[in-house]
Amino acid sequence: xxxxxxIVMTVVLIVVLIGAVSVGVGLITGANMDRVFNVLDxxxxxxxxxxYITGELIPALLDAGIIVK
Amino acid sequence: MTDINRHNFLAxxxxxxxxxxEEDRLxxxxxxxxxxxxxxxxxxxxxxxxxxxxxxxxLARAYDSKERMLHVDTRSKKSDLYEDEEDMVPGxxxxxxxxxxxxxxxLGETPALPVPDxxxxxxxxxxxxxxxxPTVEEIIVDSAQAEEKTxxxxxxxxxxxxxxxxxxxxxxxxxxxxDAFLAEYENEVPVIYREENVQEQMSRHESARVRNIRxxxxxxxxxxxxxxxxxxxxxxxxxxxxxxxISLALAFVFAVxxxxxxxxxxxxxxxxxxxxxxxGAGLVLLALGLLFLWLFVWFIGGAIAGMINGAIKLGNRxxxxxxxx
Lengths: 69, 325
What we know:
heterodimer, A: mainly alpha, 2 domains, flat, B: mainly alpha
């Protein structure tokens, strides 16, 4: 187990670094976040999930006492 | 140095020659016994031979185990003498013969004069004494029994064969390789015939005492321990299951989101900069998913299993008592 930790962390850090560099290069070369969000919203209905979480799930959890404000 | 006699010398040499084939070992021991028998001053001979360890090193250097492996089998079907095959006389036999000739030169042996019949009674006692002297086979058996009894003889487990390669390297240095080896051997491993200090003896006694102690479980204590430990372990396991399941859920969410982002990046976007942004975000999500997946595995296999193993080991340690074997 102890020997696997460095391997996992190395892989995670490398992938995160590659991802961050990709995002940075994309933003520098003219990516538009509104456009990206619209495409993803059309594809996966992100707004509906967001509204469900903020409008219904979190108030329900607050009422149940699971989440304390 | 302690005084050793022929019996001790041959017994120790027999133990040190275990790297040789049995047939060769017996041959070597018989030759050494012949040397002892032909020599009148035993102590002077032992002084000349120095120690069994030294003789074992000499034999080890002259012994070619690969070559002997080929000859031992065929020799067992032929005569045991080496005189008929001058070119096939093994190196260790030549080494012993050399020692024999050195001994004869050093001690200046002369052939025994004919003894008158009236003086034969003087030798009958000696002859009887000779018959009391154990044979090589008896010495080997005695040495094997002594090996089982004494724990201190474990130090002789460092075989001479292992050290021969080092001796070969030292030979190139110019000095007598046998002496160089023995000097190094004495520094590393206590030699049997060297006087040992009290501290070494005490540490050996202590290690022998530890070896003679075995741990016996106390069943009532063990039952009490498990009665207390099982509920505690269950509670701890349930507590640890919360972060475990949270890790699993997060790993699942991040992995699904990452896969969706990467697949969407190549399917739904046309602008390369947008593809890069979504692809980068997908990779970050996948990396987080991998991290949480590993956390889940670690909680299951490391934390929970380790806690249970630790509880079992603690129980075994706390609920055992030392009993003399």
